[in-house]
Design a protein that fits this description.
The protein is mostly helical and about 130 residues long. It is about 60% helix and about 10% strand. The protein is built from six helices and two strands. Strands 1-2 form a two-stranded antiparallel sheet. A hairpin with a 2-residue loop joins strand 1 and strand 2. Helix 2 crosses helix 5. The radius of gyration is 16 Å and the shape is elongated. The termini are far apart.
Length: about 130
């Protein structure tokens, strides 16, 4: 989707525990945690598409997904949104009333996103500690 919305999650309270993981395990844990947060946004975005009745063929709804973005070292990204080229017109209200299904999915769920990321990181740390 054109444009970029983001949430930054501060993991300072988990940094010491994460530092006990080797680089590959830490990178995988971060990528998995970011995807957990991304899945929250994906699910809410799909619900918003339905709520806004932004469905003609169903392509926007069916193509809305969380995908792995760039990840390296101690940073990980997920790209979340529809793959249809016209979804941005509905999101931003270009030629129609705005239906901010993805912006609302992100902005309205920041605490749930952070909780999903933290839960996944804690689970990865516990698995690695066994």
């Amino acid at each position: 989707m054109a444009g970029e919305l983001s949430v930054t999650v501060d993991i300072r309270d988990l940094t010491a525990a994460l530092s006990r993981l080797d680089g590959a395990t830490r990178g995988a844990a971060l990528a998995s945690a970011v995807m957990a947060g991304g899945l929250v946004v994906e699910g809410e975005g799909k619900q918003n598409i339905i709520r806004y009745d932004f469905i003609d063929t169903g392509a926007t709804l069916n193509s809305t997904a969380a995908r792995e973005g760039d990840s390296s070292g101690d940073e990980a990204e997920a790209e979340i949104g529809p793959a249809t080229e016209y979804a941005i017109f509905g999101e931003l209200g270009i030629g129609q009333s705005a239906k901010p299904f993805m912006r609302e999915a992100l902005e309205g769920n920041k605490s749930a996103i952070v909780q999903a990321v933290a839960d996944e990181l804690r689970a990865a740390i516990e698995r690695a500690s066994r």
